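User: Can you recover a sequence for this backbone? Please restate the input before giving your answer.

Assistant: Of course. Working from this structure:
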């Protein structure tokens, strides 16, 4: 997983659990005094261990932690690649164009980065089916990012997952509707 994910996770943890919480989390995850640089790649397993440790500390499920983190990280992701965001885009347009316009450039600029491959079907102007399939099975992160993107555009969306890899489906189907 890209270092930017870890550096943002640290900000998220300090923001939601208070200063010092990151060191406690590293210990709880068995990662000692690990330091993450925003320009390097780190094992996915470390991200998973940190999310699981945060879940144990907060008594929330790992999926809830990932979704909250996705919501938190969205403004930062948008800021990093704002040059690629068209001025007329709103929430569903951005998500619909993430794969072709944004994740594609992320892969080119950071050869080690493997952002999820997203497929989208625009069902109507106000509704999008987001198809997520990644060996990381982090659909909760995708749902959180979608909510964070909606916050950024001042829109409210409903998010419902009609099938999920964590329940044995080959891919996750996430329906996003602007309310
Ligand atoms: C400006 C917009 C975006 C930027 C700059 C961005 C960038 C990134 C980066 C750098 C990663 C880490 C890749 C790695 O660790 O190897 C990532 C992963 C990911 N992105 Fe995006 N992203 C954006 C929008 C979105 C949106 C809108 C969604 C879905 C709604 C999304 C879903 C994901 C997921 C689920 C992952 C985790 C990797 C996986 O599940 O395999 N991203 N993205």
């Amino acid at each position: 997983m890209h270092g930017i994910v870890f550096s943002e996770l640290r900000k998220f943890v300090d923001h939601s659990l208070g200063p010092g919480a990151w060191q406690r989390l590293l210990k709880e995850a068995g990662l000692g005094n690990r330091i993450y640089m925003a320009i390097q790649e780190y094992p996915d397993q470390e991200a998973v261990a940190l999310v699981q440790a945060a879940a144990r500390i907060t008594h929330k499920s790992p999926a809830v932690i990932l979704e909250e983190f996705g919501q938190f990280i969205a403004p930062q992701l948008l800021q990093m690649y704002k040059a690629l965001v068209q001025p007329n885009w709103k929430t569903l347009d951005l998500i619909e164009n993430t794969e072709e316009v944004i994740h594609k450039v992320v892969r080119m600029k950071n050869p080690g980065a493997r952002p999820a491959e997203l497929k989208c079907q625009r069902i109507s102007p106000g509704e999008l089916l987001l198809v997520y399939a990644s060996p990381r099975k982090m659909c909760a992160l995708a749902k959180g990012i979608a909510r964070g993107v909606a916050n950024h555009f001042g829109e409210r969306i409903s998010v419902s997952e009609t099938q999920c890899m964590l329940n044995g489906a080959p891919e996750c189907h996430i329906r996003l509707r602007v309310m």
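That completes the design. Residues 1-2, 4-5, 77-78, 80-81, 95, 98, 102-103, 106, 113-116, 118, 134, 136, 138, 141-142, 145-146, 149 surround protoporphyrin IX containing FE (CB under 6 Å).
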